[in-house]
Design goal:
With 200 residues, this protein is an alpha/beta fold. It is built from 4 helices and 8 strands. The chain has a single domain, classed as Glutaredoxin (3-Layer(aba) Sandwich), CATH 3.40.30. Helix content is 32%, strand content 18%. InterPro entries: AhpC/TSA (IPR000866), Thioredoxin-like_sf (IPR036249), Thioredoxin_domain (IPR013766), Thioredoxin_ResA/DsbE_sf (IPR050553). Keywords: Oxidoreductase, Peroxidase, Signal. GO terms for molecular function: thioredoxin-dependent peroxiredoxin activity.
Length: 200
């Protein structure tokens, strides 16, 4: 498939999913009356990683830093004062790729709110992630771009622990502590819960 065909395919996916899911979810901040219904995962599953520490628990202080895929440095401390969603994903995860448009749509819809979105790719090969990113850079508007890191980078450091299911996302409060952990796609009702936290 040529690069032009790939770009066309990504554009079609972004447009279709944003129209059917993401754009609607971007309106979630208007519904500040939603009640918290988040089911927190009690799983302690691990991946065959060298360090078998447990996944970062609710209430723990999160740490994340490194170099973004565009070469810019990133430190989670720079998001203090904002509610932050840290999403771990893998390029070969179909659900991860399918939910990116809704993430971007909500990020765009909440740009004037105290909210930040950070994605962390966990692929073993950074080049495959960069190739995918190059396609997205052509297809996705600049206003929908958010910090994106590769977990395998030499300067990368975080304390989120092993991730065994993709996508897995951590919602952090304004001080960088874990409020909730989402395993799998974030459904519309859960976006209402996130909106309530952002608008507090």
């Amino acid at each position: 498939m040529s690069i032009r065909s790939k770009v066309h395919l990504v554009r079609s996916i972004v447009a279709a999913l944003a129209a059917t899911a993401g754009v609607a979810m971007a309106q979630a901040p208007a519904d500040s009356g939603a009640r918290a219904k988040v089911q927190r995962s009690a799983s302690s599953s691990t991946t065959p990683a060298a360090v078998e520490a447990p996944r970062l628990a609710v209430g723990a202080q999160a740490r994340l830093g490194g170099v973004q895929l565009d070469g810019k440095p990133f430190d989670l401390n720079s998001t203090r004062g904002k509610v932050t969603l840290v999403a771990f994903w893998h390029k070969d995860c179909a659900v991860c790729r399918a939910r990116m448009p809704e993430l971007r749509a909500n990020y765009l819809g909440w740009r004037d709110k105290p909210f930040e979105l950070v994605s962390v790719a966990t692929d073993s090969d950074v080049q495959s992630v960069r190739d995918y990113e190059q396609i997205l850079q052509v297809a996705v508007p600049q206003a929908q771009n958010f910090p994106r890191l590769w977990r395998g980078g030499a300067s990368h450091a975080d304390n989120f622990g092993p991730i065994s299911t993709y996508p897995t996302s951590f919602l952090l409060d304004r001080q960088g502590k874990v409020l909730r952990v989402f395993v799998g796609r974030i459904e519309a009702a859960l976006w209402d819960d996130i909106a309530e936290v952002v608008l507090q």
